[in-house]
Amino acid sequence: MITLSVERGFQNPFIGRDLENLIHSIKVIIYARVSTDDQAKHGYSLESQVERCAEKLTADYSLSDGEMIALIEMGEMGDDPNRPALQYAKWLIDQRVGQKFAVLHPDRLARSFRLQVEFIEDVLLANGYDLVSVEVPYDPDSPESVFFFNMQGVMAQYQKAKIIANSKRGRRTKVRSGQIPGVRRIYGYTFDRERDTLIENPAERDVYLQMVDWILNGKNGEPMNLTSVARQLSLLNVPAPNGDKWYQATVSRILKNPVYTGRFYYGKTEYKQRKGEHEIVKKPKSDWQVVPVPAFLDDPTFERLQQKIQTFARANRGAKPNVTYLLKGLVRCGRCGSAVVAGAPSRSKKTGEIMHHYYVCSGKTRKVFEVGTGRDVHQCRGRNWRQDVIDDYVWRYIVRCLKEPESVLREIRERQGNPEQIQELVKKQETSKAVLLDKMEERKRWINLNVRGRISDQELDEALDPLEKDIDRLKSIVEILNDTLESFALDRKKIDEIKMVIERFKTYTSEKIDDVDKRKLVATLIKQVVLHDDEIEIFTTWDIASSTNSGGGGGSKKSDRQYALGSNNFNTGQVHGGPP
Predict the structure, then answer these.
(1) Nearest to 30 by CA among 81, 77, 121, 97
(2) Which residues are catalytic?
(3) For the domain 180-315, what is the CATH code?
(4) pTM above 0.70, yes or no
């Protein structure tokens, strides 16, 4: 049996003749997944998942090990549609490798009902593949089998939502009692695990107060800013919070943190997860919870400190660039993953006039100093990217999509979902809401009986205990269905917007659109652009990755490598890219 551990950045080993041999020899794709860090570290259950799938395939279909390929992935979440092994499985299916797809249990395939149904219907059944599930059989011709299998997907999603809800409730309760439910490293404090609170770290407290004094009063008569504080701490060999380097950004973050006034705020943000993507959402201040901690500064001093830091920001703001950066806020560095920002232009040595503007990796421009020496440390090395060359390349790619939108519209139509499936979810939502209302009315009736003295407190508790569990379960199911339907609605809204933009602009040329309209169009159609030293990756909002890597196994569906390297502008654009 061929067994592949598929991780992010996985290089596809099957191309050309090797792929042809695979197509002829493999009859089934086995998929196995674990999600927790501990499972990922030790590989728990992966081997047993593959073994049990292989046993069933051998017993029921007389398949040999040589006719199976197993894809395993570690540490990936079940509600993430962009899991590398799942994407690679889709690629193998597109290449017609095998006729069956095997999993141990529905929750190994997905912990999202929607993702489970989409993969089965749009990938497996649409391509004529059979789904083999060891623990929960799946028969597409049996309504009962499909219903029970789908219910396993709903329950898997419900169980995950329940775990998250219980965890949040436990943490909030802990905060109300004056405890902190775990916290990232906060300079100046040590986390007391026995009492679950922050205690003073005397050495770091002194460093913090020294930083404050330098900002407010200077050092030896010389004014100090955030950069000079970071450099001075490095020269004095003061240990940095996370390693052997002091970042200007670290100093800024420490000095702006209100925790040093004696108030630790819990619940300022929360994580939202949709289709595998995490988003940090800010919560209103009224929802924050406060835990008292040792104070280093009084409020007036902290306010003076913030005002002084704001003067640095105003002084360093500088002039706005006089050109439009088409991809502002959308670009990442392919070397280190940092955000790419507008950089300083190059100028003629003779006249001083601006020659070119550049995209620059923020990892190159961060102000970082090595502890002990004060030496400047650059986190990313490599040339910058000419703004006009990159913008022109991405714009020409968009124009090609708009002039030939058939493939784009086909992808969009495939993502709009099955109307019958949506209608089924709406019916389930209405039924669940009705049952929930009945249960809540029943709870009121029991409470009224107790108030009137018709039943004892013990009888009330016995009646309410299972009822409360049913209500919690139904609330979670309704919430899951609401999120799923909302996700469909958001997708349709976004997709309809993309379709409208394509229809409106597909006959236009770049000469007919000004920079403002170009920016709006790019923001609608482009999700992210990754810049490498000699390659560009374009990820669109309809989930097509126009990648310069042509391995086929990383989820990219198109390759623009030849086009990119064939562009004279692309090659000559690096001539003035500055030093690496």
Answers:
(1) 97
(2) 35
(3) 3.90.1750.20
(4) no
